[in-house]
Amino acid sequence: MLLALPIGYLYWNYTSRFESTEDAYIASRQFAIAPEVSGYLTAVPVTDNEHVNAGDVIARIDDRTYRAALAQAQAQVTAAKANIENIDAQMAVQQAQIAADEAQLSQQQAALVFAQEQAARYQYLAKTQLAGSVQSAQQYTSQMRQQQAAVESAQATLKLAQRQVEALKAQRDSAVASLAQANAQREQAQLNLSYTTVTADQPGRIVQLSAAVGQYAQPGTDLTMFVPDDIWIWANFKETQLDHMRPGQPVTIGIDAYPERKIHGHVVSVQPGSGTAFSLLPVQNATGNWVKIVQRVPVKIVMDNPPTDVALGPGMSVETSTRVNPNPSLYEQLKGWL
Question: Cβ(20)–Cβ(237) under 8 Å?
């Protein structure tokens, strides 16, 4: 009897530094994996409950149609580039033609100036009644008019060549837009081809696999469920246990499926509200028959050393013990002295 009191005190002094609960479960963000494109499955190299790493192939879709679409898109890009090169060549020829037309116009304008000077000279001489001056004045006046017509013709030819350059520029702008569209179609075709290989984006386990070789897959249709390796624990503590609970406090975890294992973890966060407050149908206490019930608040816990040789998944039951008082108990002090 005399030993019972100190032993009981030591037990209470030690256990009062912990908050424990059996209402705890493993959780994760499991989700479905579905293809982006449709087609018949040609390979499913995974099985139920198999662990995969990021980049591992989960399923392959027949890619022949998508390879053909990519080849067609590539051909359209090549044709669009060739069209631009052809227009550039035409523009180069047209620019050379403009240079020739400008030279021709300059030559005709110089000849017109000479004809105008000669016509004016002989028209002046014709007024003096010099022999042959009237006939020469008429001749050079006719040449001047012919030269004016030649200048106007050269100007028209130059303007036509310049308009053709403007038209070629518009055609080139359209061809550049067509090339951009062809490049976009090629990128989409490349994406669609890449989508024929369905891979894991992160490490995890395949669960409820429904895909099979020969099955026709549709975009958005589930092939399998996926459970990432990133798991945590929701421990539902009574609200009266939260007074000293803080993020970072150490936690000892026992897994019901593997009772011989003791895993260490730590508190990540405490939910700001009870579990029932976030349910689909929150409890309404505004009644005359209200009875006070201690609420439970979810606390998120992460394992520091999760086992890799056994399967852990959402819904599995665990027990948690959180040390909320870091000061050593009397039992620990005595143990240290001994």
Answer: no
Residues of the chain below pLDDT 70: 1-15, 111-112, 115-141, 277, 280-290, 329-336, 338
- Measured in degrees and rounded to the nearest 5, phi and psi for residue 206 equal -85, 130
pTM: 0.71
Number of helices and strands in the chain (H, E): 4, 14
Which contiguous run of DSSP H or E holds residue 82? helix 64-127
Q: Cβ of 87: how many Cβ atoms within 10 Å? A: 19
Buried b (16+ CB within 10 A) or exposed e, 189-212: beebbebbebebeeebbbbebebe
Q: Which fold has domain 30-62+196-228?
A: OB fold (Dihydrolipoamide Acetyltransferase, E2P) (2.40.50)
Per-residue model confidence as pLDDT tens digits over 58-113: 999 999 999 999 999 999 999 999 999 998 888 887 777 777 777 777 777 776 67
* Domain 14-29+230-338, second-level architecture: Beta Barrel (2.40)
